[in-house]
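Q: A reviewer asked whether we had any structural model of the full assembly, not just the individual parts. We don't, so I'm hoping you can provide one. Inputs are below.
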Amino acid sequence: MRATVKLFAQLRAGRFKVEEIQIPEQTRVKDVVEGLDIPPEEVAICLVNGHDTGSESVIQNGDTVALFPSIGG
Amino acid sequence: MKIYRINMSNLSSTIEEVPDEWRLMGGRALTSAIVAKEVDPACNPLGSKNKLVFAPGLLTGTMAANSGRLSVGSKSPLTGGIKESNAGGTAAQRFAKLGVKALIIEGIPPGDKYYCVHVHKDGVNIKEETELLDKGNYEVIKTLTDRYGENTGVMTIGQAGEYKMSAANISVKDPKGHIRSAGRGGLGAVMGSKKIKFITLDDNDGAGIEIADKEAFKNAAKIFNKGLLSHPVSGDALPKYGTDVLVNILNEAGGLPTKNFRRGNFAGAEKISGETMYDTIMERKGDPTHGCHVGCVIRCSQTYNDKNNKYLTSGFEYETIWGFGAGCEVDDLDIIATADHECDDIGLDSIEMAVTMQTAMEAGVISFGDGPGILKLLGEVKEGTPLGRILGNGASFTGKAYGLTRVATVKNQAIPAYDPRSVKGVGVTYATTPMGADHTAGYAVTANILKVGGFVDPLQKEGQIELSRNLQVATTFIDSCGLCIFVAFAVLDSGDVAQAMVDMVNAQYGTKSSIGDWFELGRTTLQTEKEFNRAAGLTSKDDRLPEFFSEEVPPHNAIWDFTNQELDSVLPF
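A: Here is a predicted structure for the entire assembly that you could use as a starting point for your response.
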């Protein structure tokens, strides 16, 4: 399965802006976060295809996962 | 404290005691109370019966972090209703240190002469002004700083205020001599109608600020300050990226209004994002972190340089970048920064002008994506050409001039940077705040998108009415304290910070009121504002979004689906 991962603000430091990743079925958002060595507490907002899902949500083939730290304005 | 009152009809001034009913008011609560009591709601906003009121907040001038905001109140020439427009800069703290609770300007001088006003410890001086007429705000501030010294506050109108345009703002000098603005509602036109080009403030030997219980104040201020710095949004994200960090998340969430509200995401978002802005500022030796007033610990402002590392603009906010950017399909941050600079210099609300440009593109005056065209049209506004005068009166006026229905305004005030269909809570605020479309009046983006103060799904109706109502009441109190709206992130997430905010007010004024009691001041202020609007002729039909928001907006195909009854239940008084 493939998914697109997008990182924002401080989460980009030492990582990337956007990448396609290969993942097994039943991969959850939190597994992606762990695979990128991002401490879970640094992720405040997870959007899957633009919907706020929470980190337990299971990723489907072709999904876009966007991860944000706490931000505001 | 005192009230300074100026009557421009005969160029006289008085110093008055503060009536008891206004003693425990400041900022927005006070400007709205004064306007409601002293201004005929049916008056012409640019006529002699309207008044212009400046007030620091309840906490302004103290050591409370982020308490230096200024409220400016009047009847708005844009909305036809009551207006409180809020700004940073160095004026509010000078009023507070002078012991001036409010400056009320009334009347209009006979004849064509323009004047300037100097505010100091013994009152005001009113003098004829000729040198700085027709000049932009940057030149006014520089000249006055040279004339009176660095340590002088300045509030000024650009050419737009002199033309009495409904998009004209009042510019306030910030600690670096750059510009912050009381942007919304056309109050620069009211100042222009009173023939005042600028107001300078000298707080030397002012009466200072009285605090009933200094120890209690100090303790509460420490908790408050620490609370702001330890919250991840106000302590970390805002100082680094500024408010423009919102471009990417609104784009991902499908709430970034693109091409005059046709889509919720923009292909060029990354190029105008806070992340890109930060990298650009660092590369060009600008300053990513700067406070709009002394005592601000969040410091979300910045200095943005051009390609030659020369100053271009500051106070470069998400809403401006969204509006001239995604809204107009322009993905060039330098062009957007130039538009921001021009708006500041001409004295135009950059939100109103950005939506006006989207409307001009809708009309075919220029094409979507035409960044240089935006700068050319801003030049027309500066020159006061017939087209410039249409544009300078805002999005509704421009839409009407070109026979359009796709015009994003409520009460004639432009809708800012969050699509009301896919960020529904803020849509409820746009529709129902007495101010006309204003995101800051009840910033439901917090719970809808940013997960601050809980979570309410932005695409569903459930919970939005209550969210907007509670935020509108709390925000009105925060505006009355002279606090920056960004203290709300920590206040919403921490009961201790909220308590500390109220403890500071109690310690300063010798009161023992609860959080609920103080929020009641927010509620009664909203009630006062709504009563003024009703007497001015606004009805519940004005608490609605434009019809075109019943169209679906991609990517979520969200629609605006609140009933009139639901909207009328938001502020049911």
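A: Points you may want to mention in the reply: The radius of gyration of chain A is 11 Å. The mean pLDDT of chain A is 96.
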